[in-house]
Amino acid sequence: MNKLSDFDYFLPADLIAQSPLNPRDQARLLHISNNGLNEHLICHLPSILREGDLLIANDTKVIPAQLHGKINDKNIGFTLHKQKSVDRWLAFAKPAKRCTIGSTAVFGDGFEARVVERYVAGEIELEFNCSDIELTRMIEIYGKMPLPPYIKRSRDGDKADFLNYQTLFAKKAGAVAAPTAGLHFTPSLRQSIIDSGSEFVTITLHVGGGTFLPVKSENLSDHKMHSEWGEITPEIAAKINETKHKNGRIICVGTTSLRIVEAVWAKFGKMQDFKGDIDLFITPGYSFNVADLLLTNFHLPKSTLLMLVSAFAGFNEIKDAYQYAIKNQYRFFSYGDACLIEKKVG
Questions:
Q1: Segment 155-205, tens digit of pLDDT
Q2: Pairing, β 88-94 against β 123-128
Q3: Half-sphere exposure of 50 toward its Cβ, with a 13 Å CA cutoff?
Q4: Who is most buried in 132, 197, 213, 271, counting CB within 10 A?
Q5: Is residue 322 assigned to a domain?
Q6: Are residues 267 and 182 in the same domain?
Q7: Residue 92 belongs to what domain range?
Q8: How far apart are CA 40 and CA 126, in angstroms?
Q9: Which CATH number is 199's domain given?
Q10: pLDDT tens column, 85-135
Q11: CATH code of residue 86
């Protein structure tokens, strides 16, 4: 059984990408196959894919979920991460100690929320003074894009991130982090992939703020995954089943797409339509039933996503690939380069 410390590695700070390449499909692509490593660009994807492949992307849309407010004239930062009802959100607060139950956070003129519950690890529940469409509008006015902490911005943010931190597939608002593998796609790349004989479908998984939380337990079985809401329609489930029946390959664009299709299979023993929460924690030793390949970025040390790709490609294979990427100056994390991983055989 792997321990948390097994997933640590040293990354020079200058390899953490602070903005995406333009155009996006010029990012580097490290192909981690069962035969070794090969270097490409994202725009070369059509030449790597096969006719009959099915790519599954996540159509979640990032909301400007970072709010700055005041409680008793003290500044508090809030990152919304899961909607509970038309006027309530779970959020991570910093500093959370100031968020006593019953206190009111003021975000702007006429826009405020009451702290109604406190949980562990800085998590609280907020009840806003508006709801539904009006709450969405106020979040869009006062919120900022919830960039991960390793992307450095001033408190005022960078307006370019409102476009840069959104994928080509984004349609359904609800995520507080981008499914970053999708950030590499351009309309022309998507069309080239379709022209090459592959197909695209989309599912939904609203990425939660829990994706930023570090794993703190050395024993991985003690870690609790935050749940995230997702949906697979009957039509998409049927398409996945049809592709597998025809021996086509399922290529998940991002760990979010992979987690929901694998979670549904784990729950029902087959691929079917689904709407609800998932909290699947994938570590080495997990048996994958749906995905054949995974397109993803390079992930943080000690993160659940690094554990997932290690389960998919093999622990030693990922360790070697990451060292290769560091040596060859690949760009890491959300705005960085990507890898195309084949599921380990045997």
A1: 666 789 999 999 999 999 999 999 999 999 999 999 999 999 999 999 999
A2: antiparallel
A3: 11
A4: 271
A5: yes
A6: yes
A7: 66-143
A8: 46
A9: 3.40.1780.10
A10: 999 999 999 999 999 999 999 999 999 999 999 998 899 999 999 999 999
A11: 2.40.10.240
